[in-house]
Amino acid sequence: MRRVIGSVFVLFCVVATAAAQYADEAYLTREEFETQLGYQSGSIRLADGVATIDVPASFRFLGADGSRRLLTEGWGNPPGSADDVIGMLIPADASPLTDEGWGIVIMFDESGYVKDEEAASIDYSKVLKEMQKATRAENEDRQKQGFEPIELVGWAEPPHYDAVAHKLYWAKELAFGSDPGHTLNYCIRILGRRGVLHLNAVAAMDHLPTIHERTPEVLAAVHFNDGHRYTDYVHGTDKVAEYGVGGLILGVAAAKVGFFKALLVAILALKKVLIVGVLAVFAFLRKLFGRGQRTTIPPTS
């Protein structure tokens, strides 16, 4: 019996050592993962030159590839959900892989010129109720895919439209399953001649004051280039979107152009990678046998 126990113990040690070695080889440290994202600074062309972002000194920019890696591998969004993302802004003073980290997801919806005449007369309380109803309706499909249900708690900041700059912004408070910590989704929409730039700042609710403070510099940094600005619209020639300002908030724009998967990015972000099954055992054994603390970030495939 002792011989059997001894053999089992030896086998356990061999498996544990192999698992630890595998974990060391199969995962990158937080620093290694971030190094591969490809942070940029300076003046960046967006959407094939339609717009430009002059990256503020307090931010770093990620292109489409780096954004996709961060959103899916780093933050645990579903594969394919980041396909329409053209970039991200990441605060320079915090890693996006820490609890203090957050980011701004950037997309371009080229569905046409959005008329803004209705902006001043929109009933935003009614819009909120419709959004909450739509969110509940989506939860069944989300749970089938293995994701937590989402509750749209309410406005963290009611919508506001700047008719001079043609910029719309609002903030939503979201709850994921039974998680007591709520997520902030701060939305910015910049209207252009042929479409709309979508900027979604995603963070924990306690980041709202910080995002409030940094929003003006972000708004000032992003602009449509000559020929693509809202005021460059040519009546009778340019395409007009099938929705107005209210549709941007409600998500009609997303429904019409297939942007609901982009909306998933906005509301699923900050759900960092979770280790499940055997990989969780590997990570536990690696820690148990003293091979150092490493983040659970998968390598590039």
Please specify the SSE layout and strand pairing.
Elements: H1 2-26, H2 30-35, E1 43-46, E2 51-54, E3 59-62, H3 64-74, E4 85-91, E5 103-109, H4 124-144, E6 150-162, E7 167-176, E8 183-191, E9 196-204, H5 208-221, E10 222-224, H6 245-250, H7 252-257, H8 260-268, H9 277-288
Antiparallel strand pairs: 1-2, 2-10, 3-4, 4-5, 5-9, 6-7, 7-8, 8-9
Descriptive terms for the model:
10 strands, seven-stranded antiparallel β-sheet, disordered N terminus, alpha+beta, 301 residues, 2 domains, Protein Transport Mog1p, Chain A, globular
Mean pLDDT: 76
CATH class of the largest domain: Alpha Beta
What is the helix/strand order? HHEEEHEEHEEEEHEHHHH
CATH architecture of the largest domain: 3-Layer(aba) Sandwich
Q: Largest beta sheet, briefly? A: 7 strands, antiparallel
CATH topology of the largest domain: Protein Transport Mog1p, Chain A
Structural class: alpha+beta
Corresponding CATH superfamily of the largest domain: Mog1/PsbP, alpha/beta/alpha sandwich
Would you count the extended β strands for me? 10
Number of domains: 2
Annotation field: number of helices: 9
Q: Which shape, going by the Cα principal axes?
A: globular
Helix content: 25-40%
Gap between N and C termini: 45 Å
Low-confidence stretches: 2-25, 253-301
What is the topology, as strand order, of the major beta sheet?
A: 3-4-5-9-8-7-6
Q: Give the strand content.
A: 15-25%
Describe the structure.
The chain has 301 residues and is an alpha+beta fold. The chain folds into 2 domains: 64 residues, no CATH class; 228 residues, Mog1/PsbP, alpha/beta/alpha sandwich (Protein Transport Mog1p, Chain A). Helix content is 37%, strand content 23%. It has 9 helices and 10 strands. The strands form 2 sheets. Strands 3-4-5-9-8-7-6 form a 7-stranded antiparallel β-sheet, sandwiched between helices. Strands 1-2-10 form a 3-stranded antiparallel β-sheet. A hairpin with a 4-residue loop joins strand 8 and strand 9. Helix 1 crosses helix 9. The relative contact order is 0.19. The N terminus and C terminus are likely disordered.
